[in-house]
Design goal:
Growth Hormone, Chain: A, 18 helices
């Protein structure tokens, strides 16, 4: 088998590196449930400020500039800490790294409900970003260590179900709760209620046992990862996925209101509908992907079919949505959600296979670092295009083009979805550092 960067690949199975005995399937199913629940909480917590923004802005007399700073503060810290977070989960037991991160972001959410000043809110949003920064590197570390290739499809899909249902429930339920009880009880209930997750995690998540590792583990740094062509392919692909995901999360409500003239109730229903279909698409494809691999298909064929096909379909649906009406619009919205789920459910599975347990945290951290630049660019560029043209059409077409570029990255830049042979990478690194005479020795 070939390494994506042409360095040579392991002849071992795709589950290479998971040297410690895996817990039972039932035990790991409980872990998947907790991971999916944690990512649902994660996405509600990162978007809850936008739900409460109108009331919070009026009560604290914040300017639009201050509100914009609060809404973006999370992403500043979250993106910048992805690489350090990846190092943490590779260096220490991921069970406790993730538990500390979860505790930190839950407390930050709860504390938000008792603050009264702009500076304090800005700081607590940054703390939220610090806590959540360990999430996706931890997910990749856990799934690459404890799950075989033929079980990662559905496990990753469950994470994407949480990713989809978080914004959906935030829009549908969060608005009603804030309207009925106010924004402060909303934050307190979310943050303190989430802490009930922690005891289950401590009981159900296995402790990492010390294992004998090869010399490769001591030389896998970011430089070794960035020499892999496939690492850059996954980064560009993740940027594309995040671009159309954040475009829909941040601008779909405004498009439905201003571009379609819908009421607030209709906006909530249609927004929930799209992300619900995304959850369905992820769950169904994840199960089918596992069955396909069990039947003998290669991970390369299965993962790239989902990523290339899903991304290309998202682009096509977005390009057609702005030209549709009536039932055609609703149908295209449903297929956009399904394609979103199919694409999102595969991206981290590719990383987990390529990086393996030795480097999954750092690779996923860098991939998420690059990918989250889309969270900065997509909302700003969309607003600029709408202001410049007076229409959402150009913003939809740009997002469609971004989705198609992602399909190219996943299909052509990412190589075969096979584990990188880190032992061979380490060996070549040692040879490259030898004097010429020594390097020529057998």
């Amino acid at each position: 088998m070939r390494d994506p960067a042409g360095l040579g690949a392991s002849a071992q199975p795709t589950d290479r590196g998971a040297s410690q005995a895996r817990p039972s399937d039932a035990a790991m199913n409980r872990v998947v449930f907790l991971l999916a629940l944690s990512v649902l909480i994660n996405y509600i917590d990162r978007s809850n400020l936008s739900i409460a923004a109108p009331l919070l802005q009026d009560e604290l007399r914040l300017s639009n500039t201050q509100l914009g700073a609060l809404l973006s503060a999370f992403f500043w810290v979250y993106a910048l800490l992805q690489v350090p977070a990846g190092w943490l989960v590779d260096r220490f037991d991921v069970k406790w790294v993730f538990a500390i991160g979860f505790f930190l972001w839950s407390i930050a959410t709860a504390v938000t409900g008792v603050l009264h000043g702009f500076a304090a809110l800005l700081i607590v949003r940054m703390i939220l970003g610090i806590g959540e920064s360990v999430a996706f590197p931890s997910f990749s570390k856990i799934l690459s260590t404890y799950f075989t290739e033929r079980r990662r499809g559905f496990a990753n899909a469950m994470l994407m179900v949480g990713t989809s249902l978080g914004p959906a429930l935030g829009i549908l339920v969060g608005g009603s709760v804030v309207g009925a009880f106010g924004w402060r009880p909303f934050f307190l209930a979310l943050g303190l209620g989430a802490l009930l997750w922690l005891p289950l995690w401590i009981v159900w998540m296995p402790v990492r046992r010390p294992v004998a590792v090869s010399h490769a583990s001591s030389v896998i740094g970011m430089k070794s990862i960035l020499r892999q062509r496939s690492a850059w392919g996954t980064c560009f692909g993740q940027f594309s996925i995040n671009y159309f995901l954040y475009f829909l999360v941040t601008w779909l409500p405004s498009y439905l209101k201003r571009g379609r003239g819908m009421s607030l109730g209709e906006i909530g229903r249609y927004g929930f509908f799209l992300f619900l279909m995304s959850a369905v698409g992820a769950a169904v494809w994840g199960k089918l992907a596992d069955q396909w691999i069990k039947a003998g298909a290669t991970p390369t064929l299965v993962r790239k079919t989902g990523l290339v096909g899903g991304s290309a379909m998202v682009g096509l649906m977005l390009a057609l949505i702005v030209m549709s009406d009536g039932w055609a619009f609703i149908t295209l919205l449903a297929f956009t959600g399904i394609a979103l789920g199919v694409a999102c459910s595969n991206s981290w599975a590719v990383t987990q296979t390529l990086a393996g347990p030795l480097a999954a945290g750092r690779w996923a951290g860098f991939q998420n670092f690059i990918g989250n630049f889309a969270g900065w660019i997509a909302p700003i560029l969309t607003g600029f295009l709408v202001d410049r043209t007076g229409s959402f059409a150009s913003a939809f077409f740009v997002t469609a083009a971004m989705a198609w570029m992602g399909a190219v990255a996943w299909g052509l830049v990412v190589g075969p979805v096979e584990p990188v042979d880190w032992d061979l990478v380490a060996k070549r690194s040692r040879i490259a550092g030898m004097p010429a005479a020594s390097a020529s020795l057998p």
